[in-house]
Each structure stands twice: as C-alpha cells, then as structure tokens.
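Sequence in, structure out. First:
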Amino acid sequence: MINAELKVGDLSLRLANLRVSNGLALGAEIDGRLVNITRAGNALSLPVPADMDDLIQNRRAADVRVVVDQLNARGSADSFAVPETTFAPLVTRPQKIICVGFNYRAHAAETGTEIPKAPPLFSKFVNALNHHDGAVELPTAVDREFDYETELVIVFGQKCKNVSEEDALSVVAGYCVGNDVSARGLQNITSQFMAGKMSDGFAPLGPWLVTRDLVQDPNNLSLQTRLNGEIRQDSNTREMIFDCRKIISYVTSITTIEAGDIVFTGTPPGVIWGQKVPREERQWLKAGDRVVSSIEGLGELAVDFR
C-alpha cells in the first residue's frame, strides 16, 4: 500500500521538467533512461502530476511512486522513454525565488566585500527562469558587464515557517544546479542588487531535481563552472559561510515558504567580477559564449548566451 503522505524528498529519483508538444510534462530517470512519467501515467489510467510544479505544490509524490512502480513491474519504462529531450525550467510557477549573496568567503574577498553577518538576500522573478540548454538574450542596451554564478539551489517541498536548523533539511524536496546570471553594471550602480539579477532568462535551473534522500550532505558537493570549456570556478559547497541548514532556518524566520519555492545559495570565487584587472579589461560574457555549471551528483546545466 502506498503512503499517501509520501514526500517528494523521499522518492529516490532524479526528476526533470519536460517541454512537450502540448505544454509540460514530468520526467524521471529510470534505469538510466529519461521517462515521460506524465504520459506513462495517462496511458496506464493512473493519476499522475502534469509537471514538476503539480508534483511539488500539490504533494503528489505518492502518484509518481505508483506510476514508477507499475512501469518497473511491467518492464515498460522503455515505451515512454524520451529520445530527444527538451528540458523546461525545472520549476515554472514558484511563488518565491530567493537568492543569497556573498556566501563564500573567497568570493566576498575577490569582490572586496565585507564578510556578511547574516545571509544577504535578494530576489529574482518568474521571467528569469530558464532551462538546461537554454539561451540567455543579453540585455546589451542597458549593460555590457555580464557574468556567471554557479550555485546549489534548494527546492522546497512543503509550506513552512520558523524551521529550526535541526529540522531544516526535512522541508526540502530536492536540489539542483543553478546559474545566477548577473549584469554587474546594473547590480553595482546602486546599493540594491536586483536590477542586475532580474532580466529575462537570468535564472537557469536543472536539468535535474535530485530528491533530498539521494543527497547525503548538500554541504559537501564539488562545484565547477566552465566557460567555453575553460574551468573558471572550482570549489565545494562546504566552503559556504551559511550552510543550507542555516539558510533555510534564516529565510523561514523572515517569511513563509511555500512548496515549490527556491533558494539560490550563493556562488564561490572565480566570477568575472572578481578578476584582478581593471573592469574595462575584463572579458565579460558575450554572444556566442557557453557556460556549463556542474555540481557533484546533480548533473550539468548548460546555457548559451546571445
């Protein structure tokens, strides 16, 4: 008997949000194949989430477990495998996209920023959501100093408020790779960062949501950024100033978090902004560049710039 209170974080799956001909669908990796779970559930006449947001926001983990178990029992997962995958943004309808700034000491140092006493928070909006193998149209009419920031992203699995550090990871649905694309001129022209963070496509996520139970310790994951094949960032999430537990506890002490909300946890050193050359000599992101962000166990997120 399936537990109706099964949580997304306990599914032991790598999940994806897929773009299909009639909209979105939920995907899951089964035996190394990406399977369209939404299509499989419909074919088997089983209730199934329409996409990732439906799964998380409407607590439909039990429905996914039934479909996956049926596919495994029947040996029919191949019938619903996705041969050529087009990923959608990992989530498309979060209520909140929260970002943490300067959360690695070496990143704060490279930008000449004082070590923060609490997690510095700013926000992005739904228009910024982007996907694996997506494109970012650079807003060159308003800035030229474009930068990457590979980050671990927390995806919340339930509504919560005032969560203790001890219980913090229990409210997580899973983790994914994110790139906090930034326009540094807009970011630094005032004391408020948001103008440099909110452009269309500036929040790529994915390709996988790796459920919480598959990530033994989110604060011990190696992280890399490659720009046109060259390693630019090479660090580990254990170098965070405020670890995932502290971030979750702090954010939920300020505001109520809803299922499907996401938090970018900050980037390590190696960004273009931190280069020790005059700003006018830095090689900022430009049309034709490709950035690949990778985090141990979570996969690779690739983005092209135009």
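Second:
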Amino acid sequence: MASHEQWSSKIAFILAVAGSAIGLGAIWKFPYVAGMNGGGVFLLLFLIFTIFLGAPMLLAEFVIGRSTQKDAVESYRVIAPNGKWHYIGYLGVATSFLLLSFYSVVGGWVISYAIRSFSGQLNNLTNDEYGQLFSTIISNPTEALLAQFAFIVITIYIVQKGVSKGIEKASKFMMPALFILFIILVIRSLTLDGAMDGVKFLLQPDFSKLTTDTIIMALGQSFFALSVGISVIVTYSSYLPKSEDLPKSVVSVVSLNIIISILAGLAIFPAVFALGFNPSQGPELIFIVFPAVFEQIAFGGVFFAIFLILLLFATLTSAFSILEIIVASIAKDDIKKRKKTAWISGFLVFLAGVPSALSFGVLSNFKIFDMVWFDLADYLVSNILLPFGGLLIALFITIRMSKKDLFDEINQGGTMTKTLFSIWYNSIRFVIPIGIVIIFLNSIGII
C-alpha cells in the first residue's frame, strides 16, 4: 500500500498554503475590488472579516485534513462513514475543476503579457492602445488557447511530481521571490510624485464611502481570498504530520495573505494616483492601467516585466492547489497513478476551459443568462459553489465532530486555550454560517 505523502517542513506547508490562498485573489482581485469600493474603508473591513471569519474557517479545514490524513473526499467519509457528507469533497473537486478551467485562461493572459513585455511590444503605446491590446489578446482564439495550454502544462508538470518534489519545491522558490518582487515594486511606486494620495486612499478609511455593497464585497473577499470552501486546504493539510501547530499555521497563512494584499495595494494605488488614473478601473486594472502607468516611469518596462513574473508566480501557486485536490482525490496515494491522473485531469480541464478562452472572441455572442461562458463560470464558482461549500464545511465540523475531538486535534503539536477554542467553535457554529448565507443571498440578488 502506498504511503501518504507529507510536507518536509512547516515552512514548506505554510508557503504552499499561502501560495494557494494568495494567487490572483490577493494580487489581481483585491486591488481592483478595493479601488471600486472606497479603498481604506474596504481594507479595514477586509482585515476584520479575514481575522474573525476567514481565519476560523481556515483552521476548520486544517483540522479535517490533518485529523484524517486523507484526500478531500475520503476525509469526510472517514469522519462520517455512514452519511453523505463525503459529497462535500466531491463538490470541492467539481468546483476546483470548473474554477481551474477559467482560471487557466487568466493565467494564459499573464503569459501573453509576459512574452510581450520581454519582446518590447508593450513599450511606447498610448493609453487607448493598451486597452486595444488587451481586447486583441483576449479575442484572438489562437493566442488565447495556446497561452491557456502553456499555463496548464506548467501546472501539470509541477503537480504530477507530487507534494515534496513538485508543489513544495516550486512554492519554496516562488513565494520568497514573490515577496522580493513586490517590495521592489512598492518602493518604486512610493517614490513617484503624488504617490501619497494613493497611500491615503488605501490606508485612510473614508466612512462616507461605506455602503452595504462595500460590506458584502469585503466579506466575500476575506472569505474567498484564503481558498476556503472548496476543500483545497483540507487536501493540503492532510499532508501535515500530527506534530505541527495548527493555530500558529493559521496565523502565518492569514498574516502572509494580509501582507500580500496590502503590498498589492501599495504597489498599485500610489502609481495610479500619481499619474492620474482611475482607481476604480475594474478587473482590467492590471492588464490595461499598469502597463500604461509603468510606461511613464523610468525603466518602467523592466518593472512591468518584474510585475508580470510575480503575477505568473502567484497564479501558478494557486493553480497547483486547485489541480492537486482533483489529482489527490482520484490517485489517492499511488505515485504512479498520480502522474497519469495529473496529465489526464489537466488535459480535461484545458478542454473544459476552451469555451472560456473563446468567450471574448468567436464565442462572444454565445451567452447564458446574458453572460459569456467565462463570466458564467466565474459567477457559478465565486457566488454559488464557494459559499455553499463553505457553509457545508462549517456545518459538518460542528455536527459530525465532537467538541472534545476538535479540541484534542487542534492541541496536537500546539496549544489553544479553552477560551480561544470556545470563541473559534462558536464562530464556526454560528457567525460564519450567517456570514456565508449573507454572501449567498447577496450573490443571487435577494439582499
């Protein structure tokens, strides 16, 4: 019988989970969502919700995975062998499959931009031309598909090598590099004339901009930025030895996620404000505004190329975790089966992503509920499947696991006082389900 893999060290696990959590959620999504929702007041709410909602949920998934040492599906089956709770794992696998199908398309866009940055094609363009370039890239079927395929192949190559030889090695290199590159970008952005307006926008809450939408968006961003709700973290934590301190691991991952989100804001908003761009540009903030911003900065082409490398690193680390839950659930602990499963699963994900890749070109007129396929897939994952999965996990851990078992598992390898445990338990049992229901009801337009 094949043995269950494990992370070689705590830092390897932290970097891998942080890479999964950060991804495009912190680097791409956080700045544009913050820009559209008031800046500083959004950041304040994001911090509050991340600490009091996201962190407890992260610990819950840690407990499920580490206690069973099984993949996402089997973890629920081991704890609740006579019920249907293991379908939470299947839901996570299905959600991950759909998520990676359109996520890989965005990864392909990053590759396309990176190639253009190194070939000099992003230099000396007007602001309008940057917008036209983005439209050209996403509407070109050949380029969109080739770039998406390249992104998937890189992801498969790393994941098929396993945890210690693949994901761990890649994360150990990519995550430190991500921090170094971000620091370089932040320093350059902060040295621009007028940069402090951007800093104030991000760090100084303006409560006149506080709206119900801002609260809902911050709540959703804090929850989803940590990759909780689809059992990715259950899978990653199943590779943890019992000696690891789970509460401290949560603190480390949450801290890294918050730091990267703030650094992303400090890299973007000072430059945007200094050069007169609109902070609420939207999802295209990075792909349209950033190249235009860096074009007006000394050595801007170099800095933008660095940023694209950083973005590619972050996108890949998230993709590793998404594909891993699929592969681990099918291959179990069979190393030989893992390689075959990774390539077959990855290729199927690519095929499933073809409609998303073509959504802005040849399939732009094919719409369901007035949405192209890319937007529909994003909507299903972000607004329905993720909150629903998170709700089920929160219910599962308080219904199917006793308080004593939870307390004992959390305190293997670490310590958590009974007071903190009680706060965490009641948060999982009451506060988080209510928060997820609010997100879900908002996503379907009821509130």
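Remark: The beta strands are 367-368, 371-372.
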